[in-house]
Design goal:
Layout (H helix, E strand, L loop, with lengths): L7 E8 L9 H17 L3 E7 L3 E8 L5 H19 L13 E5 L4 H9 L1 H4 L5 H11 L16
Antiparallel strand pairs: 1-3, 1-4, 2-3
Helix pairs in contact: 1-2
Length: 154
């Protein structure tokens, strides 16, 4: 798109189906690299990615060439296939339906990157459910709790 200039930073959060702890530390780096490749191949810039055992956070700089929903669809579909092809677990792996997408200013990028990369430490004090509901409140997003992720007790 000639003469189109944007600067859009989006944190994307999505969860493993059933919120099961299926992403192992041993496979995390390989999954990060694979997700990074998807984002890059779709013409977007990845600032950070971190996979907890039951959910993933990404910070992406989005161009207007693709919608957030199309990018998330591609990441989730591609990474599910990747995980299943690698046979990292018994049975079929898939992500839960839906995702969260939260926008940030350029001045917040470093803080969000540090937050994403520090997920293990962060979740020692706060569950994924608490974290996600905090996002919903912070960004003043109205929601129906029946459409949020399936929660397991943390």
């Amino acid at each position: 798109m000639a003469n189109t200039y944007t600067q859009i930073y989006i944190q994307i959060v999505f969860a493993v189906s059933g919120r099961q702890n299926l992403i192992s530390k041993e496979n995390r780096e390989e999954l990060h690299k694979f997700i990074s490749g998807i984002v890059t191949n779709r013409g977007q810039k990845l600032f950070a990615v971190f996979a907890m055992p039951d959910h993933v956070h990404l910070l992406v700089s989005m161009s207007p060439a693709i919608s957030i929903s199309d990018l998330v669809r591609d990441i989730k579909a591609g990474s599910s296939k990747f995980i299943n092809d690698k046979k990292w677990m018994n049975g079929k792996f898939h992500w839960q339906e839906g995702y969260g997408a939260f926008s940030y200013s350029k001045s917040s990028v470093d803080t969000v990157v540090k937050y994403i990369l520090n997920q293990e430490e962060h979740h020692k004090n706060k569950s994924f459910r608490e974290e996600y509901l905090d996002f919903m409140q912070k960004f003043e997003i109205e929601y129906d709790s029946k459409y949020l992720f399936d929660w397991i007790e943390d």
